[in-house]
Target: ABC-type quaternary amine transporter
Amino acid sequence: MPSPILQLNQVTRQFSRLAQPAVCAVSCSLQSGDLLALLGPSGCGKTTLLRLIAGFEQPQDGSIEIAERQVAGDGVWVPPEQRGVGMVFQDYALFPHLTVRQNVMFGLNDRLERGKLERSKLERSKRLKEVLALVRLEGLEDRFPHQLSGGQQQRVALARALAPSSALILLDEPLSNLDLQVRLRLRQELRQILKAAGASAIFVTHDQEEALSIADQVAVMCQGRLEQVGTPEQLYQRPASRFVAEFVTQANLIAAERRGEFWQTELGDIPVTQTESANCNQADLLVRQENLILSTDASSPIVIRDRQFLGREYCYSLELPSGQSLQARSPIGTHLAVGTFVQVAVAAPQLQLYPR
Ligand code: ADP
Ligand code: MG
Model:
């Protein structure tokens, strides 16, 4: 097992004694070369956690190790410029009066690399060429930031962070200022660039699709705490909490009550399977959008309230008698009009329940 590039142990940061901690007892590790997405809603503590790792914030509790060296906690404090960490911000934070070349070189002049002497002028211009090739900005060295598109500006910011061969790159919502098309293209590119550079990175996002599509590991954060860390597949298949189920996999949760060998729900009775805990009588049942099968039935109390055409499928919004709404995805062949009453069957290969 290779040693982790980052190790967080019970890291806590509380800004005010009256408020709950912005980051609360977070423990997590990142393997060298991995890309970790830190995913959570706005205000859950993502930026604070990045700032703790970079050294712009000091934890009240817990410790941080980067490349097997303790940088914070237990009375140890290593300042940001000595941590070997590169940072990319949402608003790029490029120097407007410096050219692309000067912006990227700033990353090299700015800091002495850990354990190395400052690079010679020749080495620096060689490195400049390398990283500009990596982010595909060759030929734009003499442009100023205002002469570049948003996507190009973000690639300059990435080049600046990569230039000193930092042990770890931290990216705080790097794509959220870009329009959708550029964002979709750049997110794959970002992964390729980081992988080609052999970088280890933490990528902050509030967009679950972005996190699942590019990360090796995803850490889900809610109200300062880590809810679950795992591969995108693990998170999708086995969300550990209601929050992960809803926020990350966008699944439906419906109330279920145990009646002998069945779970009674608004969608009908669903047989209890062996895998569920026997000692819980009330639960929320996870039902994926793609596992709902709709068929027209005028006597059903479930009605289609809305329909979105998504190209390969429809997304139907259903209203249950209780008023709860459910989302269902169906292939284009099943064309049902808004206002149609439908019967809903659940094709659930495995049941997932969250006890109440
Ligand atoms: P995110 O990046 O996930 O949106 P933040 O880490 O920026 O969340 O913020 C987490 C919480 O900490 C929020 O409630 C925010 O208001 C609070 N917070 C962040 N920075 C400070 C600060 N410097 N002083 C006081 N409260 C702060
Ligand atoms: Mg933030």
Summary: Confidence is low (pLDDT under 50) at residues 110-115.
